[in-house]
Design goal:
By secondary structure, the protein is mainly alpha-helical. The protein has one domain: Up-down Bundle (Amino acid/polyamine transporter I). Strands 1-2 form a two-stranded antiparallel ribbon. The chain is globular, with a radius of gyration of 22 Å. The two termini are 17 Å apart. This is Amino acid transporter. It is found in: Cell membrane.
Length: 494
């Protein structure tokens, strides 16, 4: 693969390094948010096997991360998987990869907007502020939570327009606080909890059923989702290898935090309490270990994590749209850079506006817990799809390493293929399970056909948009020759 030259007017500024990359990837995966709202949901599915499911989900994601890292070294590109899959496999598959990635992230931003507002309301409740102007505040109300979160999303987007350097500095301080709180509370919970420890917590073969395993894996993979956001800013990193290092380091930190938190939660909370508290799991965990005001610290960390993940989501999404606009598959409006800061400012604000509109549409789902469950299932299916396509692109592009460098091929070919097969099998099984779970459609988070509708709309709209870009826009992206080079990476021997 070869980098296409960019004129100074269309090139983004190289303003971040490896530490900033780690911060961006860690903020995108939002470990504190995943722990705070995801562990309770997973516990209701897999029981007392949170550490096992997090370990199991890490393996295919790690394999796919190897493919991302190697592709990024060969061609750093703001479009990342959209560009790589299109060049190596098929422009239709490449466009679909970029489209579902963008749409899935916007859905994530919409529901995280609500989660952010819910965390703020929970925090107000712990400060004994339970009503405003006679209105009772309810952290599980999607209306109240969404309206509060929308203000936060707008502020996060404005910081992102200002530049990656400022956004990374802000996220770094938020991460330091979040991880400090998590380590302190979870570390204390390991020793203070009164639930008996068991090695069976780490045994995936003890998970109740294949359906529970598949559903739990989707939720767990979703927790790791976002590490690849660092590759979308690789055109703004001084050394492309820094993006790869940032992604791998962030993934490793995520694994350790999830194992620590999963074990600590199960040491402190009985299964019933853990699963019943859902999106309020981290706040409840804090109240079991400390009195106010210390008990509010985990909730503040959750709020900071949600804010950081909103900002860390809009940044790579805007760059993905920038790359698609640059290729002519989308309008040129997405390529407009801020004259002073060199960021895709118009795209950032447009994506924010779409996420805000989607957050308002999601008000048809009455509770935050149901909204999270519906969004995570939908995103999980499309994430499995575009991760698998990116892994397949890596395996095809670097297949020559199977002959020339078998050890390097483990990371660039074998690992991605195994990861892709695992996620495709997982996604396929989940789709089949949802389809068989009901015989009618209902606008409800626990209706299987509704759960399938959202990813189907994401994929279907992507195919329609691709047909428009090829037929009406006549984008060169669809008519260039497929990549046939083996490797233009000067560091190809590892």
């Amino acid at each position: 693969m070869r980098n296409s030259p960019q004129s100074p007017k269309t090139a983004m500024r190289k303003s971040i390094g490896v530490v900033d990359g780690i911060v961006l990837a860690a903020s995108s995966t939002a470990a504190t948010s995943s722990i705070g709202i995801g562990l309770g949901l997973m516990a209701s599915i897999v029981g007392l096997h949170l550490p096992a499911i997090m370990l199991l989900a890490f393996l295919p994601v790690l394999g796919i991360a190897g493919g991302y890292g190697r592709l990024n070294r060969a061609e750093p590109n703001a479009g990342s998987s959209y560009q790589w899959v299109g060049r190596i496999l098929s422009p239709w598959l490449g466009f679909l990869t970029g489209w579902v990635n963008v749409v899935g992230t916007i859905v994530f931003m919409a529901y995280t907007t609500t989660v952010t507002g819910s965390a703020i309301i929970q925090l107000l409740g712990q400060a004994n502020l339970h009503s405003v102007a006679g209105l009772s505040l309810d952290p599980d109300s999607t209306l109240q939570s969404t309206l509060l979160g929308m203000a936060v999303l707008i502020a996060a987007a404005l910081v992102a327009v200002r530049g990656l350097d400022l956004a990374a500095r802000l996220q770094k301080y938020l991460l330091i606080f979040e991880y400090g709180v998590l380590l302190a509370f979870c570390g204390y919970g390991l020793f203070a909890g009164d639930q008996p420890f068991s090695l069976q917590w780490y045994n995936p073969f003890d998970i109740p059923s294949a359906e529970a395993l598949a559903q739990g894996m989707v939720l767990a993979v979703f927790c790791y989702w976002g590490f690849e956001s660092v590759f979308s800013v690789s055109e703004e990193v001084a050394d492309p290898r820094d993006a790869s290092r940032g992604g791998f380091m962030a993934l490793t930190v995520m694994l350790l935090l999830f194992l620590l938190a999963g074990t600590a939660f199960q040491r402190v909370l009985p299964l019933g309490e853990l699963s019943d508290n859902g999106a309020q799991g981290l706040a409840y965990f804090g109240t079991k270990l400390a009195h106010q005001p210390l008990a509010a610290l985990p909730l503040i960390a959750l709020m900071f994590s949600a804010v950081a993940s909103l900002q860390a989501s809009v940044i790579p999404t805007a760059r993905g749209m920038y790359a698609m606009g640059r290729d002519g598959v989308l309008g040129s409006v997405w390529t407009r850079l801020h004259p002073r800061h060199g960021t895709p400012a118009v795209g950032t604000l447009l994506i924010t506006a779409i996420a805000l509109a989607l957050a308002l549409l999601a008000l048809v789902i009455p509770t935050v817990n149901d909204l999270i469950f519906a969004a995570v299932n939908a995103i999980g299916i499309v994430v499995a799809l575009y991760y698998a396509l990116t892994a397949a692109a890596a395996a095809v592009h670097f297949r020559h390493l199977l002959r020339t460098s078998p050890m390097e091929a483990l990371r660039a070919v074998v690992g991605p293929v195994l990861g892709a097969l695992a996620l495709l099998a997982l996604g396929g099984y989940l789709v089949w399970t949802f389809y068989r779970s009901t015989d009618h459609f209902e606008l409800s988070a626990d209706n299987g056909w509704f759960a399938l509708l959202v990813p189907m709309l994401m994929i279907g709209s992507g195919l329609l948009a691709a047909a428009w870009a090829r037929g009406r826009r006549r984008s060169p992206y669809f008519f260039r020759s497929r990549d046939t080079s083996c490797d233009s990476d000067p560091h190809s021997t590892g």
